[in-house]
């Protein structure tokens, strides 16, 4: 009994420690940025000369650089606060769990950063709509993460990182910096570029903004329902396993009847919905970030399906599932070779 209590106490202590780490980790960037905003509000920024012509106040080149280069400043924050600091925390804890938590937080931070930067200009209705749906997206994804992790902070790292650690062995300590953190910078800064465009162009709200909102919300709803169905499936199987009964080998109900990865499809709809905002404002190149993210997720899809086929109890059922069910885009089931069409 005392051993069980001791394990529970250790688990609670670790959970509290990781929660504190998660809340403290972004403070360097946040404090610096708040100080920068205060400086610009008091002294003014963006002046090319060494002093403010109206007051004679010396203007630091650092603050002027921060004022004139919002995208570079965002990348600098990411490099120092996420790539370096999160990486060091991962080395100390022998686990790179923190970046998973912040995948849902960093887009929100970037959105508010671009909206509050002194150079920002935007249509308030578009900005408010994007802020609202982005917060909904972040809460949905954060809820799914903590629900899946049984409401624990940093209980484990992503299985893909664990597999890569085994693959690279002793070199993992430095490989992880590039393969996890620098790579995440490319993905996250890229897919969040529509937030920069939205807060850089003051153009009236129009029909395409409405279309973008509908696509984004549709993506959130699909992803939420798909993840909930997956969570319920996993929970039922865990209960069956505890009772010593056979588990269900594969989820093919609900949205999963029409797509092998409806949660991925919903997530991609979200990011491509944001691209429509950028395209509507004359910046179609913002699609590059979403395209890279989609290509990465396509690779992840391959890894996930290989992992599914490695489990003997579900391999046969999953192969049959692959033959009849669309990979991403929900669609009617196809007929297996030599069989009748299943979707009746």
TrEMBL record:
Q: Which InterPro entries match?
A: UstE-like
Q: Can you tell me where the transmembrane regions are?
A: 20-39, 71-90, 97-115, 172-198, 205-226, 282-304
* Lineage: superkingdom: Eukaryota
Gene Ontology cellular component terms for the protein in this record:
membrane
Keyword annotations of the record: Membrane, Transmembrane, Transmembrane helix
Q: Does the keyword Amino-acid biosynthesis apply?
A: no
Protein name, UniProt field: Steroid 5-alpha reductase C-terminal domain-containing protein
Give the species this sequence originates from.
Rhododendron simsii (Sims's rhododendron)
């Amino acid at each position: 009994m005392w051993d069980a209590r001791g394990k529970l106490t250790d688990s609670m202590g670790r959970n509290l420690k990781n929660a504190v780490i998660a809340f403290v980790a972004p403070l360097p960037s946040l404090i610096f940025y708040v100080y920068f905003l205060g400086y610009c509000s008091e002294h003014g920024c963006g002046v090319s000369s060494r002093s403010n012509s109206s007051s004679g106040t010396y203007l630091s080149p650092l603050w002027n650089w921060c004022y004139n280069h919002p995208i570079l400043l965002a990348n600098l924050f990411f490099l120092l606060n996420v790539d370096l600091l999160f990486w060091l925390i991962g080395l100390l804890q022998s686990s790179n769990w923190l970046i998973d938590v912040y995948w849902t937080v960093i887009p929100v931070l970037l959105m508010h950063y671009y909206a509050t930067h002194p150079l920002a200009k935007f249509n308030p209705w578009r900005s408010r709509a994007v802020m609202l749906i982005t917060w909904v997206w972040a809460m949905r994804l954060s809820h799914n993460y903590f629900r899946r992790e049984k409401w624990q902070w940093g209980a484990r790292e992503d299985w893909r990182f664990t597999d890569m650690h085994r693959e690279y062995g002793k070199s993992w300590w430095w490989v992880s910096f590039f393969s996890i953190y620098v790579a995440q910078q490319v993905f996250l800064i890229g897919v969040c570029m529509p937030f920069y465009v939205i807060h850089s162009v003051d153009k009236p709200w129009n029909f395409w903004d409405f279309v973008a909102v509908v696509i984004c919300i549709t993506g959130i709803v699909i992803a939420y329902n798909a993840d909930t169905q997956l969570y319920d499936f996993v929970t039922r199987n865990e209960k069956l396993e505890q009772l010593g009964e056979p588990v269900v080998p594969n989820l093919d109900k609900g949205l999963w009847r029409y797509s092998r990865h409806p949660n991925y499809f919903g997530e991609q709809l979200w990011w491509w919905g944001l691209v429509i905002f950028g395209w509507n404002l004359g910046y179609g190149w913002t699609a590059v970030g979403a395209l890279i993210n989609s290509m990465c997720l396509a690779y992840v899809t391959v890894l996930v399906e290989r992992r599914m086929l490695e489990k003997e109890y579900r391999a046969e059922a999953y192969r049959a599932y692959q033959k009849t069910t669309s990979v991403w885009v929900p669609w009617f089931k196809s007929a297996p070779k030599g069989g009748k069409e299943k979707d009746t």
